[in-house]
Amino acid sequence: MIDASGAKVPFIQNESNPKYPFIVLCDDDGFLIAQGVDRDFDPNILSVGVRWRRSRSEETNKPNPLGFPLARGTAKCWLMLPDDIAVCVLSYLKDQTPNSNRQIEKSEIDKAIQILKNQISQRSQND
């Protein structure tokens, strides 16, 4: 998607992609981490994105339907992580213990890490 200033805004597709479906890997009170396909990128590449549900200064029970980041203040978008950073974040999360405030899909995280590592390896071979 292109915003009003002409810049690309990253979105994870909400539609199902048979190769890389949209899956929430970590559902926390303050943020979400999900895998999927970046709408404006190669559909054969797995992307991992982050969305914040609220700022640190907001009360936990305050509703914030849009979260952060936003595209021009109205559309939900995802901060797409570079593959190497996504591997680090997901590796950390898979070692955490889920609790009532944080749900973690460990088996899906393991799959995503393997795919991301393969993507990194393939990219380095092509360079």
Query: What is the straight-line distance between the termini?
Result: 28 Å
Rg result: 15 Å
Low-confidence stretches: 1-5
Total number of strands: 7
* Sequence of secondary-structure elements: EEEEEEHEH
- Helix and strand content put the structural class at alpha+beta
Q: What's the shape?
A: globular
Number of helices: 2
Strand order of the largest sheet: 6-3-2-1-7
Fraction of residues in helix: 25-40%
Averaged pLDDT: 79
User: What share of residues are in beta strands?
Assistant: 15-25%
The profile of the biggest β sheet is: 5 strands, antiparallel
Give a written overview of the molecule:
With 127 residues, this protein is α+β, with helices and mostly antiparallel strands. The protein contains 2 helices and 7 strands, in the order ββββββαβα. It has helices spanning 83-94, 106-126; strands spanning 23-28, 31-36, 47-52, 70-71, 75-76, 79-81, 102-104. The chain has a 5-stranded antiparallel β-sheet with strand order 6-3-2-1-7, with helices on one face. Strand 1 and strand 2 form a beta hairpin. Helix 1 (83-94) runs antiparallel to helix 2 (106-126). The longest helix has 21 residues, at 106-126. The radius of gyration is 15 Å and the shape is globular. The two termini are 28 Å apart.
